[in-house]
Design a protein that fits this description.
Layout (H helix, E strand, L loop, with lengths): L6 H11 L14 H22 L8 H13 L3 E6 L3 E7 L2 E11 L18 E4 L2 E4 L6 H17 L5 E9 L12 H7 L11 E12 L3 E3 L2 E4 L1 E10 L3 E2 L9 H19 L7 E9 L6 E2 L2 E10 L2 H21 L3 E7 L5 E3 L1 H15 L4 E3 L10 H6 L2 E9 L21 H20 L1
Parallel strand pairs: 3-6, 3-7, 7-18, 8-17
Antiparallel strand pairs: 1-2, 2-6, 4-5, 8-18, 9-16, 10-14, 10-15, 11-13, 12-14
Helix pairs in contact: 2-4, 2-10, 4-10, 6-7, 8-10
This protein binds nickel (II) ion.
The site of nickel (II) ion has 4 residues, from loops.
Length: about 450
């Protein structure tokens, strides 16, 4: 994608599309996008409500996948099911030759009991990692699926005007697979979703959020969402009577010193002016009663970064600090780091190209630069393979201040469905503008 951008491409797109919806600069979107999307709005909302009422956890999205696959087959797409467990991948070929664009929607819900008063609220309960839980689309992935189903229909009806190919990726388990299972974007990539024919050159994805009003769109070029890794430290000492601490080795004191030592990683070691980072200890367990110094203390925590080098540096420093401080106390520390999602990096060139498209869709005053998000997103695995652009769609009712709106993952998370139209328009517009200008 890099190096292909030029004024000539924009002009060619202008001629190809009849020049409607023309912005002062940048790629142009076909005039039919808004009307076509509007005509699909009621059905997108109906799909979203159906999926909302029947949420499924990661790697268990069988009903959702069937709904998606049936729809895509009816549209005449080449549909593959059972990818990375329950994923659906479909290919739409335009009438004219051109590049391949991938579009991704995640399908999974969360173990959250819905507390929103809606006629289509979820009443679903299931077992998750051995516990009985409610299930809710508390992160809005129901809207992502419905939006992409709408975009598939819009593009399928316009394939005569389409110069290139679209690969639709309906992905399971973005929120993580159940214990002991693999899943999500990492598994889809490993199963060849981006390397098999037709091989996409770029990928687009979106996420709805409570932090903006319906109608608003935001984006962040470069590192946009954090990597997320879990660490575990087991500090081993020697058990003894609490009244005779000199007779043993106290892992509680050593572990406390380690917690303090970990605070120096972000403040003293990482190059803070380059990117922020977070190291937090989330749990610390050891001992059973007041007068016994225990054998060991276990602690777990999270590491968030926006840079692959810093990520590696922090992993090294956690190990050095924990083992070094433990040794100074006559104890030992075993450190393990469980790799989570990598940093989500929006390709800067693709982002710069995409912003004028979003501005044409939503209006210049509704498109803004988003702050970095310390949450993680497995769209990052696709972005490690090909240039990708992941952007945000507001879904808070304009009458509610965003700081009063229940956040994503809350049992009170409520979607203003008027935001879905903007999502569908954006995805369709990005796809057509890319295909017609590359
Ligand atoms: Ni999400």
């Amino acid at each position: 994608m890099r190096g292909n951008l030029c004024a000539g491409a924009a002009l060619a797109a202008l001629l190809l599309t009849g020049g409607a919806g023309v912005a002062a600069e940048g790629p142009t979107i076909p005039a039919f996008v808004k009307g076509d999307a509007k005509a699909l709005e009621d059905r997108i909302i109906a799909w979203r409500r159906d999926i909302h009422q029947h949420p499924e956890l990661g790697n268990r999205e069988t009903r959702t996948a069937t709904l998606v696959a049936d729809h895509l087959k009816k549209l005449g797409l080449e549909v593959q099911t059972g990818v990375a467990h329950t994923g659906v991948v479909a290919v739409l070929r335009g009438a004219k030759p051109g590049p391949v664009v991938a579009l991704r929607a995640d399908m999974d819900a969360l173990p959250v009991t819905e507390k929103v008063d809606l006629p289509f609220a979820s009443k679903v309960r299931t077992t998750y990692n051995g516990q009985e839980v409610g299930v809710m689309h508390a992160c809005g992935h129901d809207t992502h699926v419905a939006i992409l189903m709408g975009v598939a229909e819009l593009l399928a009806k316009r394939k005569a005007e389409m110069a290139g190919t679209v690969k639709f990726i309906f992905q399971p388990a973005e929120e993580g697979a159940p214990d002991g299972e693999e899943g999500g974007a990492e598994l889809m990539v490993r199963q060849g979703v981006l390397s098999s024919d037709p091989k996409p050159q770029v990928i687009f994805g979106l996420h709805v959020g409570s932090d903006a009003h319906a109608g608003e769109v935001s984006y962040r070029p470069g590192p946009a969402m954090a990597s997320s890794d879990e660490f575990k430290i087991v500090v081993k000492g020697r058990q003894t009577h609490g009244a005779y601490p000199w007779a043993g080795t106290d892992p509680i004191v050593a572990a406390s010193a380690i917690v303090n030592g970990l605070q120096t990683i972000v403040s003293r070691n990482v190059e803070l002016i380059k990117e922020p980072a977070v190291v937090s200890v989330g749990a610390m367990n050891g001992g059973v009663r007041d007068n016994i110094i225990p054998d060991k203390v276990e602690m777990i925590g999270t590491i968030r970064t926006f840079d692959a080098g810093m990520r590696a540096q922090i992993h090294t420093r956690v190990k050095e600090i924990a083992t070094g401080i433990a040794a100074a106390h006559g104890a030992t520390a075993e450190v393990s780091v469980n790799l989570g999602y990598p940093v989500s990096v929006n390709d800067p060139t693709l982002s710069a190209w995409a912003v004028p498209v979003l501005e044409q869709v939503a209006g210049k005053d509704k498109v803004s630069l988003a702050p970095k998000a310390v949450a993680a997103e497995d769209f990052s695995y696709y972005q490690q393979q090909i240039p990708g652009f992941f952007f945000y769609i507001g879904v808070t009712d304009p009458a509610t201040p965003v700081d009063k709106a229940a956040s994503n993952h809350s049992p009170h998370f409520k979607v203003d469905e008027s935001g879905l139209l903007v999502g569908a328009e954006s995805m369709a517009a990005l796809t057509l503008a890319y295909l017609n200008s590359h």
